[in-house]
Design goal:
Blueprint: E1 13-16, E2 21-26, E3 29-34, E4 56-61, H1 75-99, H2 106-109, H3 114-117, H4 119-139, E5 153-157, H5 160-170, H6 183-204, H7 208-223, H8 225-228, E6 239-242
Antiparallel strand pairs: 1-2, 2-3, 3-4, 4-5, 5-6
Keywords: Membrane, Transmembrane, Transmembrane helix
Protein name: DUF443 family protein
């Protein structure tokens, strides 16, 4: 493996081209990132079960033809607005179920004991809808790259270990073990916990309100997370651009 001596940078400027590709601007150049291919099952569940897929992506230098590339106008603003609305709805719902009296409490108003009894059916419906969504997303027409597909670079995260060690040092002693296990197992355990936990809470509540918020919303946010959120733009993450032979 060739040692990388290139400087690291943050990815802050990005735009969405379609379901699969993102356009980023770093160090004075423009790159198309092959970010979330719906025909690759490893991109579902935020790449939970494929560690490498969340640390590096193929990047195509398109600086010379940037003006010819169509992007979704104001996508960044739309994404930020969607996150704000999600936050407001979540705060309202939690405040309601924790503080409001029964006559005004959504959890009590939407209570139905049949939800808990039919938990197998609910899980089956979630899985069937997931398969339908995979089929629909995989069938969508994808943008045709303006450069050769085999002429790519690699955008790779450079400070994963540094951030992991920092989280370990700042964590409580009873959870510190988590940061000492291999990254793949970290993602697997986190993914399973984030998926199974909310599903159980939503179903066990026997409330349509909680079922929607905890089970349906959280499950599909995690399931489709790679297509909704742009991981490289997350705070404190550093990247570098490498040639294929430098990996």
């Amino acid at each position: 493996m060739v040692k990388n001596t290139r400087s690291s940078f943050s990815v802050k400027e990005y735009e969405r081209i379609d379901i699969r590709y993102r356009l980023i601007h770093v160090k004075g150049k423009d790159y198309i990132l092959d970010y979330s291919n719906p025909r690759d099952l490893r991109n579902y569940f935020m790449g939970t079960f494929y560690y490498k897929n969340s640390l590096q992506w193929k990047a195509y230098d398109v600086t010379h033809c940037r003006e010819q590339i169509p992007v979704i106008k104001d996508y960044y603003k739309i994404e930020q607005l969607a996150r704000l609305i999600d936050g407001v709805v979540a705060i309202f719902y939690f405040t309601n179920i924790l503080l409001f009296p029964k006559p005004l409490n959504i959890s009590y108003l939407t209570y139905d004991p049949r939800i808990r009894r039919n938990w197998k059916l609910i899980i089956m419906i979630l899985l069937v809808i997931s398969l339908v969504l995979i089929f629909i997303l995989a069938s969508l027409k994808q943008y045709q790259l303006p450069v050769a597909k085999d002429n790519y670079l690699i955008l790779k995260q450079t400070n994963y270990k540094e951030l992991n060690d920092k989280d370990a040092a700042e964590s409580k002693f009873y959870i510190r073990w988590f940061y000492k296990i291999p990254p793949f197992l970290q993602r697997l355990i986190s993914g399973l916990f984030l998926i199974i936990g909310p599903v159980l809470v939503g179903i066990n509540s026997s409330s349509y309100g909680s079922l929607f918020v905890f089970t349906i919303c959280i499950y599909y946010i995690i399931f489709l997370g790679r297509f909704l959120f742009f991981i490289p733009a997350h705070k404190n993450k550093k990247y570098t651009i490498l040639e294929k032979g430098e990996l």
